[in-house]
Amino acid sequence: MVAGTLARTPIRIYHNHGMALCCARGWKWPALWAAEKLSCLLAHRVIYVAPSLLADAERMGVCKPGKGCVILSANGLDCTNRFTPRVYGSEYRDRWRTSLQIPKDAFVAGFVGRILKDKGVDDLIRAWQLLSRDEPRLHLLLVGEFDARAPLSEWAMRAISFEPRIHRAGFVKDIEAVYPAMDVLALPSYHEGLPYSVLEGAAMELPVIGTRISGIVDVVRDGISGVLVEPGQPDQLAAAILNYMYDPQLADAHGKAGRAFVTEKFQRFAVWESILQTYDQLLNRRLQRGRTGKSRTTSGGEAFGSAVIEGRVSDAGLTK
Q: Considering the chain, what percentage of its residues have pLDDT values greater than 70?
């Protein structure tokens, strides 16, 4: 944004996919706050991927009211050909469970993402430990790579290394194929933008357990498509897993409701159209100012109002 301003770029758009500021501590907080504030100040439009993120930005004073808008997700999701149980069904469930040595009748709680402390993986392992002794059918599947920037605790690493019912799949390129191996998806994170793993899991008809934090609350509808728990509370996480384990009808209902919600709100064509509309608004304003002799666009931005922009577009429309 600084470089664009110095170069007199006439339209500057800041896409915000989440603020590390929300969970920063010590000297990092003012440094990140200043970076966010400056980026928003110099942008003509700030696009957030979730309503709760925009609310946080306005509450913390980094984005002034009227400058930000919400477009749900950064790029949308292909729920028709990729993230759909119609394509990835029981065959993939059996294949992944066999490769990871997970029994067919096991109940699998899954996690997808970078494996680090900020994602609440320590809490997830603790929740599994609270249940594992009395629930021999319960298995835990971790999909993703370890991130050394915020490593797990030593006891969590020991549990992952030596507990036979905790399975690691590592990095999976075709991630849609591994979701069928799970019965519930858990993301007990402390900080998120808009978590794609939750969108993907819901699209694959998995009930989702998430923490009550910005970003996740916009995707998981508590009691409808999943369950929200407080961050840092393994006992609440364990109770939610156990509830789904012993109520398969509830799990099925929440999974179907999650897919319906994601396919309605997060289809990629709708997201692309919303981004296009936002760009068109800025370009049209720029052109109108040019016709009236006001060629320079101020760094203060326009008061478009805060709203979730929704739209639809066809393949033909995009090609044209």
A: 91
Question: Which residues make beta-bridge pairs with 254?
Answer: none
DSSP code per residue over 194-222: S-HHHHHHHHTT--EEEESSTTGGGT--B
- What is the rounded CA–CA span in Å between residue 53 and residue 60? 11
CB 229 within 8 A of CB 208: no
CA distances to 28, 82, 216, 237 from 230, rounded to whole Å, are 24, 31, 12, 8
Q: Looking at the whole model, is its pTM more than 0.90? A: no
Token reading at 290: 């040019």
For the ranges 21-25, 190-194, 216-220, 245-249, the lowest mean pLDDT is seen at 21-25
Contact 135, 165 (CB under 8 A): no
The amino acid at residue 305 is G
- Does residue 282 contact residue 44 with C-beta atoms inside 8 Å? yes
Alpha carbon of 271 to those of 49, 56, 76: distances in Å? 10, 22, 6
Q: 182 near 201, Cβ under 8 Å?
A: yes
The radius of gyration of the chain from alpha carbons, rounded to an integer in Å, stands at: 22
Token code pair at residue 255: 């999974």
pLDDT in tens, 141-176: 999 999 988 899 999 999 999 999 999 999 999 999
Structure tokens at 82: 């990729």
What is d(CA 79, CA 82) in angstroms, rounded to the nearest whole number?
6
- Tokens 């910005």 belong to 214
Strand ranges inside 99-179, DSSP E: 107-112, 138-143, 166-170
The C-alpha atoms of residue 143 and residue 279 are separated, in whole angstroms, by 36
Q: Which residue has the tokens 């946080």?
A: 56
- Nearest Cα residue to 275 out of 26, 71, 50, 48: 71
